Amino acid sequence: MPQDLLREMVEQHGNAIYRLAQRYTGDRFLAEDIAQETFLRACARLQSYDRSRPAGPWLFRIALNLCRNRRRAAREIPVEERFAAEADPGPGPEHIYLQQETEQELAAALRSLPPVYREVLILKHVNELSYAEISAVLGLNLSLVKNRLYRGRIMLREALQKGENKR
Question: What's the topology of domain 1-77?
Answer without folding.
Answer: Rna Polymerase Sigma Factor; Chain: A (1.10.1740)
